[in-house]
Amino acid sequence: MEVCGEAAGRYPSNYNAWSHRIWVLQHLAKLDVKVLLDELSSTKHWASMHVSDHSGFHYRQFLLKSLINQTVKDSSVLEQNPLKSEPALLPKDEEAAASAEEPRIKIPHLLEEEVEFSTDLIDSYPGHETLWCHRRHVFYLQHHLSGRFPHNVAQLSPADSPGGTSSDLHHNPAGPHTAQAMEVDGLSDSSKQGYSQETKRLKRTPAPDSLGLEMEHRFIDQVLSTCRNVEQARFANAYRKWLDTLSQ
């Protein structure tokens, strides 16, 4: 993990470094919940210092999706195995059991924190498309989790890799609600490729609830009313356009 972090710091949007970090989580850490939570926390500062690093933010999306999948998996296990009478534990046994328990995952709270994190970064570092793409993903996950999408959240693939070369985040039958990819006209060809691969995941999404859309539109209005950065305004308007396609 240290090698991955050092390599990611030396070379911007280091696809190989972040892909290997994901591999380590999957095959060595076995997507352990505590490790996932630690990674989400420990990479927050790194992300705030590398606001144009597309691969780094995709890694945070991978962590969130993996935590969601783990939550769904744990819930299904509980449903299949109703509470049974358990032998009484001695005080020391209780302490040992408590220390061995995996931390409880509060996914809605984690996603709310990520939205706040996104807001702070967009306000502090205007004109970075990576931040707007990340916000779109968090918005999607937030409403997918809350049950406003008619698909099982377990369909989110934790195997997605930073460059978007693995399976899509979500596939939805073609319908009237087809979202458009964010504009990336100002980016180099290599950057365009990375962003286009990433935003293909969200080209087809059912309409989320009106309250969530309203809050996002308020955020966009606030950004546009105060920003003087041309790129920031372009990205905000592109995000608004994408949101509008969801409510059609």
From TrEMBL:
Polar residues bias locations: 188-197
Spans annotated as Disordered: 83-103, 152-209
Gene3D superfamilies: Protein prenylyltransferase (1.25.40.120)
GO CC entries: cytoplasm
SUPFAM superfamilies: Protein prenylyltransferase
GO molecular-function term, one example from the UniProt record: protein prenyltransferase activity
InterPro entries to which the protein is assigned, alphabetical: Prenyl_trans_a (IPR002088)
Domain of life: Eukaryota
UniProt entry keywords in alphabetical sequence: Prenyltransferase, Repeat, Transferase
A Pfam family reported for this protein in Swiss-Prot or TrEMBL: PPTA
Feature: compositional bias, Basic and acidic residues: 91-103
Protein family (similarity comment): Belongs to the protein prenyltransferase subunit alpha family.
UniProt protein name: Protein prenyltransferase alpha subunit repeat containing 1
Taxonomic lineage of the native organism: Eukaryota, Metazoa, Chordata, Craniata, Vertebrata
